[in-house]
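PROTOCOL LOG
Step 1. Enter all chains and additional molecules of the complex.
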Amino acid sequence: MIKNRFGRRHFLRGMGGVAFALPLLSTGIISRDARAETTAEGVTFPKRFVFMIHPNGVIPQAWFPTRGPSGEDSDFQLGESHAPLEPLKDKLLLLENVNLEVGNWDRAVGPGEPHQKGMGGILTGRTLNDGQFVGGDGSRAGWGSGQSIDHYLAERVAKDTPLPTLHVGVRADSHIGSEVRSRVSYTASNQPAPPLNDPVDVFNLMFTDAMTDPGAMDEIKRRRGSVLDTVGSQFDSVYKRAGYEDRLTLERHLKMVRDLESRLAVDGGTIGGDCEKPATPPSLEVDSEDTMPQIATEHLDLVALALACDMTRFVTLQFSNSKNGLRYPWVDSFGDGHGLSHAGPSNETAAKELRARDRWHAQQAAYLLKKLDEIPEGDGTLLDNTVFVWCSEIAVGNTHSHRNLPILMAGSAGGYFKTGRFVSYGSERSTNDLLVNILNAFGQDVETYGDAQYCNGPLSGLT
Amino acid sequence: MNMKMRNQAAKRGGLLLCLSLCVLATGCREGALSYEYVDASQVPTPGQTSPDDGGKENSQTPDDPREDPPIVIPDGPMAGRSPMRLLTRYEYDNTTSALFGFTISAASEFPSENLADGFENNAWTHNVNMTLLRSYINASESISARAWEDPPAALSGCVGNASSSALCLEGIEDFTSIAFRRPAYEDEVALYQKLYRDMRSSEGARVAFETTVQAILQSPQFLYRLELFEPSPMKLPPRDGGMDAERFELVGPYEMASRLSYFIWGTMPDEELLAAAERGDLNTPEVLSEQVARMIADPRAREMTRQFHRQWLGLDAFGSVVKDETAFPMWKDGMSQDLRLSIEAFIEHVYWEEGAFDAFMTSPAVFLTPELAPLYGKAINEESGGLWREDFPAEERAGILTQPGMMALLAYPNQGSPIFRAIWVRERLLCQHLPPPPSDIQIEPPDPDPNATTREVFAIHTANEECAECHLLIDPLGFGFEGYDALGRWRDTENGKAIDTSGELIGSPEQAMNGPFDGVVDLANRLADSEAIAKCISRQWFTFAMGRPNDTSDADSMSRIYEQFLQDETAFPSLFEAIVLSDSFRYRKRPEVAQAEFEEANPDLVAMENAAEEQGGE
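Step 2. Run joint prediction.
Step 3. Record the structure below.
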């Protein structure tokens, strides 16, 4: 049974003293405060991490802000590419001179070419494994070699959301399929977490249960619990008869089954209260340049809703894959993306197309961030309780450098980050350091993440 | 932007992509090409070059060719690793269809497999994740609900007027064994029967039925091809040459039934295979040969061949193929799908009608649709009612390398790509890999001249000393393909200039194959006669069959597979049979041997596991 769009309020969890009615918003999304918890510090809301990536670098002149006359971090003008984000400027945090040290081409760390290293290293903080993937230059690399921070956090701070993470892609598997250049998120070394490219699949994964009548859902959950119990018991039967290597695989599988079991048992994940029923996305051709903009919008709507409904707190959002050769005809870009990115500085036609693409990506970011910012949570908005990071897997296409990776952040993670600033580092810093900042924002007391030799402690000046 | 500008912009983009190779791929030597085919004929080769780490701290810099240690080929028959294999989406849907007799295609909502060597079924990279695990729940719920309406024979006693708890409990035992592709253990059956009884008493027959089916469909024994270590009932004498019985054992009969059926059909064993397994004689060469012959004659073998080529040749990329409307006004949406069908029809033709690898490399047949025919200068065959075969002039077309679909796939929207084509030949057909790039070159490419021919533009690579080294392995090979444009059409001129199709192959694994050639037909004929390419294709099939690339333990099997393939004039059925009859397919390492080797190869992992165990971890 599907609940009516303007159906009854169904609070999913004991609300303590914080249940308060919220107005319907014109976006069709209603915020959900069911996850709010009353602690000694007052009412707190969950923190979220949303990571967005697009391939082949940026035009730095159009990406990086211009600093104002005062020289203050808060005195800056957004770059041309980020014009769509102007209304949210106070909630942005832009970084300069942060390098992807685990990929840095100048120093050529680990196997793989720059696109591969960027994808597999950005969220794991590690160099790649050896392996069989052929990069754009014919060289070879394997998968990322460690857990990415989204999964690290999901295991530690969000054990009771229906899904630990959500990975969505707009043509993320296009052309090359599932390989190191099309994956950013890892549950562990060699264990990439695949994005879903079809909004219908995302919808089914995230919201089938949510659209079931809560009473019926309780029954379904009980049954699923019994099924998974039996599945777990059967593991013992095969485990004791399996070979050593297979036992390791079985253990990994069982660990995930147990995690899923506990998440499914959580009271929640049904439509009601402040989480609205999403419209079923249309069925679209998922690997086509004709549908890319629409699929992006569908995904962004679902991501916003998944966060609003607290289905998950960790999202990766991927526009195609690295070194892709896609065209963006809807912004008059008919060159292939990777080819364009290699153009020399005098190639104005290519630069124009790339700027148009960068701006379109910024529009997508703005669309999502605006939605999140319209969902009230306590005194602020859902965006305020989020840290959003957008970057590319390389800095600039025609050099493939990992120096000064373009990084735009938004949201303060519940007031942890001081936004509305453009922070530049005199001495070059590592993206691993930024991962540490993010982990710290989630209350994780760590000083390094990934490979410690590329860590220098959290980036200064962000909090 | 007007159309002309669009076209030029697109062209620039395309050309510049190629130049990226120039930026990245220098430091090449012929000897730096790695060759992934290993068999018993190869003498151990020392590292081709001495590691030149030039005092760099990180031993894994691209300056350092990171040569594998010298290959040591073991003597005599052996079998490689046999890790458990998660069903792919294709296998999952086939298996549930075979098990239930209806098709739901639930796996279409699963996330895609993680590829290795282009293949989806790699035992180590195709593994579970939370999204997939969650999708398994949804899939099992859809399937079990449908099965209540339309139960499989084994479970017919659970549903309907004549149903009873006792009948259903009996049925569960049978059904579990079928779903698991082996006799279920008593403890397993007891678990599912308990679930059924508990649910039946609390929630009734339907919920009990559905949850029991769900539990079976979510069990690892269903989701994986999990080979448990039971002693094989067979006491076969090892074949000549002697398999070391201390280290290896025959794969059990039910497990062999699954190896066969998933390799040749991409689905679970049928009744005949299970019956042969029950008799216990499945793993004899005679019975295996009979079964392979029977299975190859089944349409499911054709579908499996399509799956193999979809992965090996990267045909899913047709989904992304677009062509520039200005350069090719005759191009229409949907033609990429026709080109894909054309390639599939060609493969079907060479495998099942011509039947030999030689045709794969040299047949002038091209399969056309009414949409495609005018594009390639042919009249529409009104009578065909679908795809039809056209034999093109032998000087224009020879086999897979000249298929219009392949040429269009290995191209940009507005022009062909010598680079894509050459790398594809190296990687996919020669099993060769280019060395890693140097670390210290940054070149900003010049703006190319849009009126130049493709060949002229790429001459930049070889004119530049830094680029030339590596591009000599790529460009001269790719230039041979200049006779085909971005649609795979035959052409004599480009931008008003005569096409030059001269090319050169250097550094191939077979000395006799190297040297100048004129056009792809010339190249294709040379490759068709070569051992290296026949070896490579047998390696690709082996990788697909085993769910892992060959390793040194498979060297003896690889030799025998290849010899059989060659002896039978590269007939594909012989190749399939030879793979099935190989030691690698029929034997596996004994559990204690497998464990010892695994532990030796993964000391860190083992230390971690032991530490977790000591901490009383799960």
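Step 4. Note key features.
Chain A touches chain B through 107 residues (CB under 8 Å).
The radius of gyration of chain A is 22 Å.
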